[in-house]
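Quick one:
INPUT:
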């Protein structure tokens, strides 16, 4: 089984810690954990992730704009958006910028592993 290298991006440190614990299992390696879109873009060069798990709503460079820049500059990296919002409008906006998966934080535990597995298929 291939190990999926993950970069975690969320402005809440406690949530990033929770996410890292959730992903502490065979098949996943957290290669970075940052608090903003700006930090994510800077970290991409050094961490070489396969997947960026990105919060939608962050101060500064938001999740959608960060996703756009990742797609433009690192087209091979997959992007998963995490959000408190599960409306079709948010999902459509994420899809429009090239996001590969959208997971509502309320359903994080059951949905994120499934989304990551689908990205590897």
């Amino acid at each position: 089984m291939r190990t999926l290298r993950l970069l975690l991006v969320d402005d809440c440190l406690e949530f990033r810690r929770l996410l890292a614990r959730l992903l502490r299992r065979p098949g996943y390696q957290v290669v970075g954990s940052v608090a903003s879109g700006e930090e994510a873009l800077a970290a991409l060069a050094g961490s070489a992730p396969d997947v960026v798990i990105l919060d939608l709503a962050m101060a500064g460079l938001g999740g959608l704009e960060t996703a756009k820049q990742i797609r433009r500059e690192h087209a091979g990296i997959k992007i998963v958006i995490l959000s408190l919002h599960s409306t079709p409008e948010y999902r459509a906006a994420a899809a429009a910028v090239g996001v590969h998966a959208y997971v509502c934080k309320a359903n994080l535990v059951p949905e994120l592993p499934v989304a990551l597995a689908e990205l590897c298929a």
